[in-house]
Amino acid sequence: MNIEEALVILDTFLEHGLSDVQEIIFRKAWEGQTYPDIAESCGYDANYIKDVGSKLWKLLSQAFGEEVTKSNFRSVLRRRAQNSVLSEKLQPVPAVLRQSQPTSKTKDGISASSLVIEKQDERKTPVSNPDFLENPGGSVPLNSFFYIERPPIEERTYTEINKPGSLIRIKAPSKMGKTSLMHRILTHAKQTGVHTVHIGLQRADSQVFTSLEKFLRWFCANVSRQLNLEIRLDDYWDEDIGSKVSCTLYLQEYVLEKIDAPVVLALDEVNRIFEYPEISRDFLPLLRSWYEDASELEIWQKLRLVVVHATEAYIPLDINQSPFNVGLPIKLPEFSLEQMQDLAVRHGLDWAKGEKGLEKLAPLRAMIGGHPYLARLALYNLGNQTVTLEQLLQEAPTIAGIYSNYLRHHLANLQEHPELAIALKRVVTSPTSVQLEAIAAYKLESMGLVKLEGNQAMPSCELYQLYFREQLT
Q1: What gap in Å lies between CA 463 and CA 104, rounded to an integer?
Q2: pLDDT number for residue 245
Q3: Of 56, 104, 169, 362, which has the fewest beta carbons less than 10 angstroms from its beta carbon?
Q4: Residue 277 has what pLDDT?
Q5: 3.40.50.300, 3.40.50.720, 3.40.30.10, 3.30.1330.40: CATH of 153-331
């Protein structure tokens, strides 16, 4: 048996296949590499690789119904292959993060893609055990069973990030999966031998935003640290030529010259700097200039940008200087009903299968609008059997419902910004869409509370309309 045949068998047992990181560990372990070796060769933290590996063997143990370890997994798979039978009717379940399977032959001349494991319908999957359910919050882990792809977005971004000098713009409201997608783009880039840098603007101290110079020096220092380069800001910073030129020279003549491979620079929560016009009106055009420099200067082709933001820039920017009208735009959509069904099945909810399952899920999608975080929170609670679907829907817009903490957080933000509360009240109490002042509209959109169609705003979903119509009166 070879590695590709083994992966086909895993896909037969695992309803959602392996994640990218799990597959890397599986392949390297098949070659006999240790966790430290795997971490070093792939650029991951050793403890992270060990943790994912441990969960992988636990996952396989659940799937096969016997103990699987790093030491015995080959023999377990060989034994399963020997007990396999052929079936022309098998339709392989597509993996979550691996789109196609190579076709190979066993020693007996049997196509590995046609292997069927005996008693397949009796196999155990981790999602049938509540202990394997993930409490949603933050970005979805790379090795998660509960990450739902939104084709063709993932493949488009993976293809684009391989291009020299590329720029990807990911836009979506809060908790729609922007950071989860960004991490997968960075992971894909790492696997191709590219350096990666992740700058989360939410992590910056408020004093960083007191001046353009402080912000750019903070930015350059972070880039240097993540690339394991000595911070040499003072060697390149010159007040006579200004902060923007100093920053550009630092990247061009030091960082990009020093590194031995291209670098993907991901900027998360870029909308935070919209609150600081004196910084954003200089930094955003700077990003655009670096992107354009790649068409003329080979050194800038080593830089690939991922810009993540929650709403349109509500500061005046020259159309020829804005980074928001170049590169590959990605606008994350809400989950379709079929994607919610997929997620429900991954949570072990057998009642969600088939056409009847779609009918049962339709009211939930109508309530939450297919919002990824709200969907995961609902299905997590349903999977844990802490609430029934009927009870969940009835209590959803109330303080007794599963969304109470989430909704209360939004309400507190609105109370701190009365102008936004007034604007949202107009939206949720109107029978039709309403026109809002631009900045209020963009801020409410970034919070995910409204959808914008042209200049018109409407509630993002029934949940928000019902809850805030009650709370803001």
Answers
A1: 50
A2: 98
A3: 362
A4: 92
A5: 3.40.50.300
Task: Measure CA 404 to chain center.
Answer: 24
Token pair belonging to 340: 């919610």
Decide: 271 and 446 in contact? Cβ < 8 Å. Answer: yes
The reported pTM is 0.72
Query: Is-contact 169 329, C-beta < 8 A?
Result: yes
Cα separation of 464 and 407, whole Å? 8
Burial class (CB in 10 A: 0-12, 13-18, 19+), 298: exposed
Residue 260: left (phi > 0), alpha (psi -120 to 50), or beta? alpha
Domain residue extents for the chain: 3-132, 153-331, 337-396, 405-471
Pairing of strands 167-171, 195-200: unpaired
CA 96 to each of CA 34, 225, 473: distance values in angstroms, whole numbers, following the listed order:
26, 33, 44
Predicted local distance difference test score (pLDDT) of residue 316: 63
Token pair listed for 377: 């929170």
Peptide bond into 397 cis (omega under 30): no
Q: Give CATH for domain 405-471.
A: 1.10.10
Q: Which of 133, 142, 126, 137 is nearest to 16 (CA)?
A: 126
